[in-house]
TrEMBL record:
This is Polysaccharide transporter, PST family. InterPro entries: Poly_Biosynth_Transport (IPR050833), Polysacc_synth (IPR002797), WzxE (IPR044550). The chain crosses the membrane at residues 89-113, 125-147, 159-180, 186-205, 225-247, 267-287, 307-325, 345-363, 375-396, 402-420. Its main location: membrane. GO terms for cellular component: plasma membrane. It is found in: Cell membrane. Pfam families: Polysacc_synt (PF01943). Keywords: Cell membrane, Membrane, Transmembrane, Transmembrane helix. It is a multi-pass membrane protein. One of its GO terms (biological process) is enterobacterial common antigen biosynthetic process. It comes from Mesonia phycicola.
């Protein structure tokens, strides 16, 4: 029976990728939960909230520096993975774009470090962290591009190995610096983790060094840049808008309620991010490359239905288990001080369920560069999340924010389902 089950997984591509990736995600989840536990123990909800601000701010900066074209890199690499010369042209373009834009963003951060620090942390005291982000940014951007190339080449084992080693290093350095330096040590680890990952990535990318031979510093072929710009616009919208929304909502919670309540909400969001990560990783590793190389609309329908059939039932069951065990999860992951966040689980889990149902369909917009559709749906989700959160926060208090999360993600799912109703429900002849 066991051998049949293993054979079944090996013969099912999406389950094979999921099983390979689950080890990396498990390591990342465990290390992430431990770091959350340490932060909660030493600095409580307020520390959790400040780290949430840093992560949101850094996500915005990284996205701008990379022009948000990571999914475009994956898609282009997947389409041209059998053409060595084309891959070299693509790699050279990615390298030039990443270096030029990231250096420009770094200079901006160094000049306006005090203002950026105040926007993210509501204090100028962390301007030095902004400087640290600026100096590490070019390396971090190149790391993102190389990882995206490996992903596009479907070299899942290398990507997964890189992620596992990075997660373990994160745990070691985060724990040590948090203990010896304090909250600032945690900030340093978060900022420099991608720089450390770059060293690991370079080691695993050795078989593909030929792609970076004869690099030209300023190489921007019009056709490739034009195509990548469409992916960039799509990703920039979501990767900048959502962190801005989270920063805005967190600030509103601090003003309306307290920094402690903001910490509860961030703790819930952080917990959510761990299991969402598994779903997003499967979609990135399996769904996006498959949709990018698809020759007809039937592949989209088959891929989505396959995901719903083999992945969603396990995901839904996992969410139910998390809800039932929420009291124990809070005690284990955080501390007794965080028990008031039990009321946040239902709304958060419902919203996360509908979000993944919609997300697997929206990747078709990336794969087929449906820019207008993607921007419209993402803005609908982001703006709706902010408006619903602010309104329901006044009505229901902190639980109103997760009610907003559930409501807008349900509407988002219905909207995306309506957009793709024809390819999904139309009978193929």
């Amino acid at each position: 029976m066991y051998l049949k089950f293993i054979k079944f997984i090996k013969n099912n591509p999406i389950l094979k990728v999921t099983s390979l990736n689950s080890g990396a995600i498990l390591v990342k989840m465990i290390t992430g939960l431990i770091t959350s536990k340490l932060t909660a123990h030493f600095f409580g909800p307020v520390g959790i909230a400040l780290i949430g601000n840093l992560r949101n701010g850094q996500n915005i900066i990284n996205t701008v520096a990379s022009l948000g074209v990571q999914k475009g890199v994956v898609s282009h690499t997947a389409k041209g993975k059998d053409k060595k010369k084309l891959l070299q042209i693509l790699a050279n373009t990615f390298f030039s774009l990443g270096l030029l834009v990231s250096v420009a963003v770094s200079v901006f951060l160094l000049v306006f470090n005090n203002k950026v620090s105040y926007y993210i942390f509501q204090t100028n005291a962390y301007a030095w962290i902004i400087n640290l982000i600026a100096f590490s940014l070019p390396v971090n951007t190149l790391n993102l591009f190389i990882l995206s190339i490996l992903q596009g080449l479907s070299d899942f084992k290398k990507v997964i190995s890189i992620n596992i080693i990075t997660s373990l290093c994160n745990l070691v350095f985060f724990s040590a610096l948090l203990y010896f330096v304090g909250l600032e040590g945690a900030f340093i680890t978060i900022v420099l983790l991608s720089t450390l990952q770059f060293i690991i990535t370079l080691y695993y990318a050795k078989p593909y060094y030929y792609l970076f031979k004869n690099l030209k510093l300023f190489y921007f072929p019009k056709k490739v840049v034009s195509s990548l710009s469409k992916y960039g616009v799509m990703t920039l919208i979501s990767s900048i808008t959502f962190p801005l929304v989270y920063l805005g909502v967190r600030k509103e919670i601090m003003v309306t309620l307290s920094s402690t309540d903001a910490g509860y909400w961030e703790a819930m969001s952080r917990l959510s991010s761990h299991y969402i990560l598994l779903m997003v990783s499967v979609i990135n590793l399996y769904v996006l490359p498959k949709l990018s190389s698809a020759k007809n609309q039937n592949i989209f329908k088959e891929t989505v239905l396959e995901f719903y059939k083999w992945i969603i039932p396990f995901y839904g069951l996992g969410l139910i288990i998390i809800y039932v065990l929420r009291y124990y999860i809070i005690r284990i992951v955080y501390s007794q001080e965080f028990l008031p966040m039990q009321d946040l689980f239902l709304g958060q889990l419902l919203g996360d369920f509908f979000y993944i149902l919609a997300l697997v369909m929206t990747y078709q917009m990336h794969a087929q560069r449906q820019v207008k559709r993607f921007i419209a749906t993402d803005l609908f989700l982001a703006v709706g999340m902010y408006i619903f959160s602010i309104y329901l926060l006044d009505v229901f208090g902190l639980t109103g924010v997760v009610y907003a999360h559930a409501s807008i993600n349900f509407l988002y799912f219905l909207l995306v389902l309506f957009i793709f109703r024809k390819p999904l429900f139309k009978h193929s002849k």
